[in-house]
Write a structure and sequence with these properties.
Polyamine Oxidase, Chain A, domain 2, about 500 residues, FAD/NAD(P)-binding domain, alpha/beta, 5-stranded parallel sheet
Length: about 500
Amino acid sequence: MSDTAPPLRVVVVGAGPAGLTAACGAREAGMDVTVLEKDPEYVGGISRTVKKGGFRFDIGGHRFFSKSDEVTRWWKRRLPNDFIQVRRMSRIYYRGKYFDYPLKAWNALSGLGLFTSISCLASYGWARLFPRRPETSFEDWVTNRFGRRLFSIFFKTYTEKVWGMPTSQLSADWAAQRIKGLSLSKAIINAFGGGQPKSGETIKTLIDTFDYPRLGPGQMWEQAAADLQAQGGRLVMGRRVTRILRHGDRVTAVETAGGDGGRSLVQGDQFIVSMPLRETVLAFDPPLPEPVQAAARALSYRDFIAVALVVEGENPFPDNWIYIHEPGVKLGRVQNFKNWSEAMIGRPGTTCLGLEYFCFEGDGLWTMADADLVELGKRELAQLGLCSPDRVTEGSVVRVEKAYPVYGPGYQAHLDTIRAALGTLKNLQVVGRNGMHKYNNQDHSMMTALLAVRNLGGQHFDLWKVNTDAEYHEEADPSAADRSGRVMPGRVRPPE
């Protein structure tokens, strides 16, 4: 008889960037790997690329840029010959005019006209002399750095479309993270060639070019899935995890359900879970304590609809994407995938536009019929002067539930309760954006997965300390400030 121990059985829930990164790493380390994905067709989560009639389009746009050399090498190893360099061009559409984004001072002020520009500069001067204190909301933070007028023009409408709540109720912390390093004064300095970042620093918002897979981000995750299977890993599609069975301080198996209603158990030694944290907590059998379940039920999400339209004839605009700041339309952002990669366009003389609508599951947009959403998209493109309806020959709709984890009131306390409970389970790790209820980019999600695999090998990384620059800290001092994850908007708490 052989004394060799059988390989560790690792069950990964979810085939998005975090799940597939963990699965590939575990398989390369010689572990027995099974990945369970609820989608019957696509891998990649919200980084997938959907295929319709020869066209490929993203769920939003996904640049491939990371401060982590390890993540960048991981990408290039998967697709050594399929990355292209894309010139970034993104603008804001407001009152029939286009403005560069990130904001360039001269472009913004000249486009607004003399009198509005004067009022913007006066508003900025007032904000510098009399800043809002305390600086608690998104509105406070941006106003203090750009002035009230520029805030109302370039930040308010779009932000409220995305999150479905007033900017006065969004936290300043989120603004500090999302617009980190930018202000009107810095934009002016940058316009004249000064104020460049110090060595080793990059203001992500200012990146001019980026890597991009020739066939969209889904190509990366399709390749990762193929590599996993070629190495002997298992990928089971169309299986939603409905129960997580535990005994004492260990998870023993997960129960899955398919589209046909059939259920099955998948046993393992270690479990890496990237499905939404709320669903994870509520799936345990026996249940976790009621306060932990209540904390999970308090977590909330913002949902998303992508409407893809095939447009005949001349390319409507040169941008990768345009932010729509018009309050008179529901459209939040529009992508032009021909300007990301020509290879994604299935027919010469056409392009594919991706219209992004932000909503809550079950609201009027979410429940609208696909045909009506396509007509809405055509009508709003015409209203904005971007494309006439008669040029649109095809349309399709993709709904994405739980696209954005929201930092609602008491969010951190709820998350602390959940983290403490999950921390008692010795063989379960949660990873990724939804798995940890953090608004991570795909490189940050991948870093949590890379470290989770190292933990399977006996190391002790705290995945919750992976921060927005894809950095990490080992066994951080519990008394230290939590630098985890990209900050998401949370409602401003009223003074006590």
